[in-house]
Structure prediction request, 710 residues.
Amino acid sequence: MSARADSAPHFPAEPDYLRIEGISKRFDDALAVDNVTLGVRRREIFALLGSSGCGKSTLLRMIAGLERPTAGRIVLDGEDLAEVPAFRRPTNMMFQSYALFPHMSVAGNVAFGLRQERPRLTREQIDARVAEMLELVQLQRYAARKPHELSGGQQQRVALARSLAKEPKLLLLDEPLAALDKKIRQHTQLELVSLIRRVGVTCILVTHDQEEAMTMASRIGVMSEGVLLQVGTPDEIYEHPSCRFTAEFIGETNLFHGRLEDGRLNGSDFPAPLAIAAEAMPAPGTEVWLSVRPERVVLGRQPPAAVNGNVSINAAQGEVDEIAYLGSHSVYHLRLGGGGRRMIASVPSAHWGEASAPARGERVWAWWLAPDGVVLTR
Amino acid sequence: MSSGPAAPVPAPPRRPFFLLRGRFWVASLPWAWLLLFFLLPFVLIVNVSLSTPDLAVPPYVSPFSQPQAEGRPVFPPAFNPDLGSYRRLGDEVADLARPGAELQYLRAFGNSLLLAALTTLCCLLVGYPFAWHIARSAEGTRNTLLMLVMLPFWTSFLLRVYAWMGLLDSSESGLINQALLALGLIDAPLQLLYNSGAVLIGMVYSYLPFMVLPLYANLVKLDMRLLEAARDLGARPWTAFVSITLPLSWRGIVAGSMMVFIPAVGEFVIPDLLGGGGVLMIGRRIWDDFGPNQDWPMAAAVAVVMVLLLIVPIMVFHRHGGRGDGAGEAGP
Prediction:
């Protein structure tokens, strides 16, 4: 495949640190989590990504022991957690709303978990660990404050310190940044990642924000309606979505729907049969979708010249309908042929060189190389 | 508008008080209520407590009354308080150490405070799980349960106490005794009525809603995620309750306890009816002094002392409960 950049950190083959085997959760009549199987490696930051109500939070709460699975097993570091109550699990969670104890100081919050340790820790051990944690999140000066006297970002750091204080085997983050302003969120994402890496804890993070998942996680699991649809590194998920949901949920895409005939996609609303390339070509006659990312589409005033080798090109003429200028690139909305089929293309600003960029209403050519489209069967 | 130095805003003309804003009137309502229905009667009672008992109607001579010898009232009126009633209470306090002293007022005070304290404690122990359960129920169920708590108020209070007398009746016709006899659990009817147990049952029954409602109002606001966080951090259920739930519901506990304790101190109908009048309550003492004994100043003095006795702990409670989010930080 053309764009397979193996940029994600490489993990040596070792048994999964956390294994989730066929886990399901039924609430009354609704199946919140549907037979999910998943492995997470040691020291990995794994993101569960999906829209609200997709079951990702329920999955996280089952790992924490706050919900009982209807079926399935959770094995952490070789230990089956099924019969381990939440208060004895070697996992700690950072709650979406932080759930800081309002009647305790920052230090009291961080010390809470340490006070529950059995055999008991001495006061000196607890104090030392609290100081260490507060230094880690740079809140030493706020030890005596109550949570409501802190800003949202500071509260988030207290919650993080509290969930790291007991050195959990697994850190669970439930929408860790959702309560923060957009501005400090982006900054905090990277800060959080570097902190987790420094501590060296294995981490599962739940988010509905694809950007957050892609920035923070080494691998992502995409969930929808209780089902784990795809697991992969951020670029795998973006470049090689396994289904329509992933393709549309992560970033934007152009989808063409048709039937496979003679190695081509027929019957779509693209003006011509579509040339496709796939490692494992589905059987002829199969109903398939073709996903083409906007940045794979090339625009030009002239039709595309022939390309070296035997790579096919899909090309069509269209009218520029809308242009969103975003600085480094522009997003063009085209109306293909004379019909109503719309297509989006993301074009780098430098693409047009000396010539001026096309204006609204202008007719241009749009094309992409067959291998740049991803064939989806579901 | 110019950005120069702001011109002094002319003060709006003062309005006559009856044209003041609505906010003023709304804010003044509770104060008016307090003044009319608490402070004014209290001042009158204080006045009576400083009077001299007399065979007249009303049966006392006000400390402000003047000998009418000259035929016209003097202004300002002289103030001649009679501290006799307070002196009698003081004498009892001085007699405390003397064995065999009668101490009828102090004993009544003690009985009432003890009963009120026991009632409060029992109401708290019964009411807390009660309120917790309601607060954690589904929203639709909650209202039904709350209504069930308040349902007894639809019947007269006295009627409900009489109903308890029927239930607890110590003869064979008592409902509970009947049931126990019929089941063969006992051979002879139990002495259920006219003892301290019956009084406590009646008191707890009558005052329970006053504990449940404030506790419910507090517990329903408790963020359950805090308990999940405590569990996640390794707290066993009991530890989570003691270190999170209890401190965070402290205000509800204080409010409910005050709602039960204060009226319970003055209660004398329930002890009279269910306890058979064997134990003297301070409320009964006041009733007797106002009624059969015709000693209004004494009754008023006892009432004043009772109010003062209650106000001090309330103020201490209030100080404590009104701080931050409840109690101080839970200890290690």
Remarks:
- Chain B is about 65% helix and 0% strand.
